[in-house]
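Chapter review: from sequence to fold.
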Amino acid sequence: MNRIFVCSVLVSALSAAAGCYVAAEPQYTAEEDGAGDLVEVSPGVEVVADYDEPVFFADDFYWAFRGGVWYSSPWYRGGWVRAEHVPDHIGHIEHPEMYRHYRPAGYVAHAQVHGGYASHAQFHAAHPVTGTVRVRAAVHGGRHR
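The token string follows.
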């Protein structure tokens, strides 16, 4: 028992020294999609609107820039791993921190939509945003239907 504890402490210490970032698995239910909205910021790149940190979506993954390092995840609310390869259109975002709480002109936040991604997508179909901003529901797993 003590050997397992010592090994786990050693692995944790080495991971911290190596600059690893491990996040807890995101918690969600099948009926809840997180209520996140994606808005386009450049061709092929979207950001989670009005979110506490700048989280981008491109190439079926969410991307976060933390401490000078890019992380990716299939879900914008957790499960982050250090990205070995970052697509150019993500890696070349100048000042990603400027997208924290990003709200383009015409964007209006809404209450959480229950019923999963399909209900969230239906909400946006029924409540189109006026102007040039394109808004769609963020979905767990990255892939949008």
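Two observations follow directly from the output. The beta strands are 37-42, 45-48, 55-58, 61-66, 69-73, 81-82, 135-137. The two ends are 47 Å apart (CA to CA).
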